[in-house]
Write a structure and sequence with these properties.
Blueprint (H helix, E strand, L loop, with lengths): L2 E5 L3 H13 L4 E5 L31 H8 L2 E3 L2 E7 L4 E6 L5 E5 L2 E4 L3 E3 L13 E2 L4 H13 L4 E5 L3 H11 L4 E5 L11 H13 L3 E3 L4 E4 L3 E4 L4 E3 L2 E4 L3 E3 L2 H6 L22 E3 L6 E2 L6 E2 L4 H15 L13 E5 L2 E7 L2 H6 L4 E6 L14 E8 L5 E8 L4 H12 L4 H5 L15 H13 L4 E4 L3 H6 L3 E4 L3 H5 L7 E2 L18 E4 L4 H12 L5 E5 L10
Parallel strand pairs: 1-2, 1-7, 2-3, 7-18, 9-16, 10-11, 10-16, 11-12, 26-30, 27-28, 27-29, 29-30
Antiparallel strand pairs: 4-5, 5-6, 8-17, 13-14, 14-15, 19-20, 21-22, 22-25, 23-24, 24-25
The chain binds flavin-adenine dinucleotide.
The site of flavin-adenine dinucleotide has 33 residues, from helix 1, strand 4 and helix 7.
Length: about 550
C-alpha cells in the first residue's frame, strides 16, 4: 500500500488527499496540519468580519473525524512537520501542544504549506498586540475579538490587494472608520491605473480613506505613522501587503527554490527531489502568456495543482500549461474581475499591444436595475491575440472575464471573440454581449479604421493644449468636465462643424467613449483626417484623488 504524506491540510493539501483516495482505496493517506483546523475556506474568512458569516467555525468545511469516517484519510491537526529526510523518506512531526516529536515514513510526499503574510520587522511596533494578518480561522477570530472587545473605532488596513480590500469592505460595514494605505499609485495590481480609479472612487464613496504612494513606518496603540510622516488614527492594524511562499521544509529537504522564491517544480509538480511534490501558494509557476516564472496565490491553481500532482503519482498523463491569473472580488456594490495581462504587464514584458475600453449596459436599457460594465480588452498588435481583460460593474462581470479567460487559455484571437455566440435575453445582457462589443472595437483598431488614445493620456493632452471635444449633453458637461474641453454634443455637431478645426488634431471624449466614437466615425466620413477617440470613461479620470 502506497504511503502518502501531505504537509498542509487546506487548499492544496486537502485536495491532494481527496484525489489520492479517489484513485486508490488502499493508499495510507496522512495529512499533517500545524493549525487546529483542516479544510477551511480561506477565501471566506473576511466575511466573518461583517457578520455575513456569523459563526467563524462554520468556515471549517470538514473536521478530521469526517475525513476519517468518509474518506479513511488521517487528518492530524496541531501537527507540524518540522523536518524531511529525503534519503530515508521520512518526516518528523511535532505535536504543537505537547512538543512530542515522532517520525513518519512516506512513499510519496506532497508539500502544500502555503504562504506567510509579510510582516516586515523594519516596521516599528509590528509585533504589537493590535497588529493582525488574515490567513486562517484562528487569525480571523482573534481580529474580530479584538475589534469588538476593545471598542475599536478606527482601523488601518495596509495593502490594497484583494485580501486588504475584502477586509476593508467587511470591517467598514460595521460602521468603523477605515483607512487603506497602499504603497503603489493604485490598488489592485491586477488591473491598470485607469480602471483602479473606479475602485478608488468606490472606496471613497463608502467612506474609506485611501492613501496611495505611502507606506507604514510605525505602529502605536492609537495611531500609525506613515513613511511620509503622516499620522493616521487607528487602534487596530491589519497587514495585507502580500505573502511569501513557505519554503522552509522544501529547503530543508534539499528541494531547489526558483527565481521568484517559490519551490521549483516541473509540469507534473515534482520538486527537484524524487518523490516529493509541491503545490499551492508555496510554489513557483509559469505564466502561460509570457512564459515567465511567477507566483500565484489563488485557490483554483492550488486545488488543480494538487489534483495534477496526485494524478502523476498514479501514472496519469499530466502536463501543466501554466497560469493566466483570473480573479474577481466583490467590493461594496461593485465587482472587479480580471484575467491575463494588464497593459502595465504587457509593457513590462515588451509585448506590443493595444487595448480598448467599452462601457455597455449589463442588460437591455428598458429592464430594471441596468448598470454599466466597464470592460477593457488587451490584445497583441498587430496579431490580435487576446492577452487580458479587466471588468468592473455592479453586475456579475465574472461572465465577461471568464469568457475571455477561456479564449486566452485557448490562444484565441480577437476575431474569435467578435462572433462568439453567447447566451442572451434582456435579463442577462445586451444582444451583443460586452465581450463582443469590445472585440468589435478591437477589430476596428486592428484594421486601422480609426484612431484612439487612452483616457490615461488626457492629462498630457490638456497640458499640451490639445483641442478636446466633450461629446456629452450640456447638462452632463455642466456637472463636471475636463477643464480645457469644448462642449459639442453628438446631438449638435452636424450643425456646428465650423467650430471643429481641420488643420490640427481633434480629440473627442464622452462618458463611455461610445458617443465620441460615433462622432469620430462621422467626422472621418466627412473628410476629417486627424480625429482621435479618447477611449475609456470620463469617470476614470483621477478626479477623486
Ligand atoms: P493554504 O490553504 O494556506 O494551506 C496551507 C496549510 O499548511 C496552512 O493551514 C498551514 O498551517 C499548513 N502548514 C504550513 N506549514 C506546515 C508544516 N510544516 N506542517 C504542517 N502544516 C503546515 N483565492 C482565490 O482564488 N479567491 C479568493 O477569493 C481568495 N480569497 C482569499 C482570502 C483570504 C483571506 C486568504 C488568506 C486567501 C484567499 N485566497 C483566495 C487564496 C487561497 O486561499 C490560497 O491560494 C489557497 O488556500 C492556497 O492553498 P495552499 O494549500 O497552498 O495553502
Amino acid at each position: 500500500n502506497k504511503k502518502i504524506v501531505i504537509v498542509g491540510g487546506v487548499g492544496g493539501g486537502a485536495s491532494a488527499a481527496a484525489r489520492a483516495r479517489r484513485l486508490d482505496e488502499s493508499a495510507e493517506i496522512t495529512m499533517y496540519e500545524k493549525g487546529p483546523n483542516v479544510s477551511f475556506s480561506n477565501c471566506s474568512l473576511p466575511y466573518h468580519l461583517s457578520g455575513l458569516i456569523p459563526d467563524a467555525d462554520s468556515i471549517v468545511m470538514k473536521t478530521p473525524e469526517q475525513f476519517h469516517k468518509q474518506y479513511n484519510i488521517n487528518a492530524e491537526v496541531n501537527s507540524e512537520v518540522i523536518d524531511v529526510d529525503a534519503q530515508q523518506k521520512t518526516v518528523q512531526v511535532k505535536d504543537v501542544n505537547t512538543g512530542e516529536i515522532r517520525t513518519s515514513a512516506y512513499d510519496e510526499l506532497v508539500l502544500s504549506p502555503g504562504a506567510n503574510p509579510i510582516m516586515p520587522k523594519s516596521i516599528k511596533g509590528i509585533d504589537k498586540s493590535n497588529v493582525f494578518s488574515v490567513r486562517n480561522v484562528v487569525d480571523i477570530k482573534a481580529l474580530q475579538a479584538y475589534l469588538t472587545d476593545n471598542q475599536v473605532s478606527d482601523v488601518a488596513v495596509i495593502g490594497g490587494g484583494f485580501i486588504g480590500l475584502e477586509v476593508v469592505e467587511n470591517i467598514a460595514q460595521t460602521g468603523k472608520k477605515l483607512t487603506l494605505v497602499e504603497a503603489a499609485d493604485h490598488v489592485l495590481g491586477t488591473i491598470d491605473d485607469d480602471f483602479a480609479q473606479l475602485v478608488h472612487k468606490n472606496l471613497y464613496d463608502n467612506g474609506v480613506q485611501v492613501i496611495l504612494n505611502d507606506g507604514l513606518a510605525e505602529i502605536s496603540d492609537q495611531h500609525i505613522t506613515l513613511t511620509s510622516g503622516k499620522e493616521i488614527k487607528a487602534q487596530a492594524v491589519v497587514m495585507a501587503i502580500g505573502v511569501s511562499p513557505d519554503t522552509t521544509l522544501a529547503k530543508n529537504a534539499g528541494c531547489r527554490i526558483g527565481v521568484t522564491g517559490g519551490i521549483e517544480v516541473n509540469q507534473q509538480f515534482e520538486t527537484s527531489i524524487p518523490d516529493i511534490y509541491a503545490v499551492g501558494d508555496a510554489i513557483e509557476v509559469t505564466n502561460m502568456i509570457t512564459r515567465q516564472k511567477t507566483r500565484l496565490a489563488l485557490a483554483f491553481p492550488a486545488q488543480m495543482e494538487a489534483r495534477d500532482a496526485v494524478d502523476h503519482m498514479y501514472g496519469r498523463p499530466v502536463q501543466n500549461q501554466g497560469v493566466i491569473g483570473s480573479q474577481v472580488i466583490h467590493l461594496f456594490d461593485l465587482n472587479v474581475a480580471s484575467t491575463g495581462l494588464t497593459e502595465a504587464a504587457c509593457k513590462q514584458n515588451g509585448f506590443d499591444h493595444r487595448s480598448v475600453t467599452v462601457i455597455p449596459q449589463n442588460r437591455v436599457g428598458v429592464m430594471p436595475d441596468t448598470s454599466p460594465i466597464f470592460l477593457k480588452l488587451v490584445f497583441s498588435y498587430p496579431g490580435g491575440e487576446v492577452l487580458g481583460a479587466q471588468a468592473i460593474g455592479k453586475s456579475g462581470v465574472d461572465k465577461q472575464i471568464d469568457v475571455i479567460a477561456t479564449m486566452i487559455s485557448m490562444h484565441g484571437n480577437i476575431s474569435n471573440l467578435t462572433h462568439l455566440e453567447l447566451a442572451y435575453s434582456p435579463w442577462f445582457s445586451t444582444a451583443k454581449n460586452a465581450v463582443n462589443i469590445a472585440a468589435l472595437v478591437a477589430e476596428n483598431i486592428l484594421n486601422g479604421e480609426y484612431q484612439q488614445v487612452s483616457i490615461s493620456k488626457v492629462r498630457g493632452l490638456v497640458e499640451s493644449g490639445a483641442f478636446i471635444i466633450d461629446a456629452r449633453e450640456p447638462n452632463e458637461y455642466a456637472a463636471g468636465h475636463i477643464t480645457t474641453s469644448i462642449n459639442i454634443p453628438l446631438s449638435q455637431f452636424r450643425q456646428r462643424l465650423d467650430e471643429i478645426p481641420t488643420d490640427k488634431p481633434v480629440y473627442i471624449h464622452c462618458q463611455s467613449s461610445q458617443r465620441s466614437y460615433n462622432m469620430v466615425r462621422a467626422l472621418n466620413n466627412l473628410g476629417y483626417t486627424n480625429v482621435t477617440n479618447i477611449s475609456g470613461s470620463f469617470l476614470e479620470l483621477k478626479q477623486y484623488e
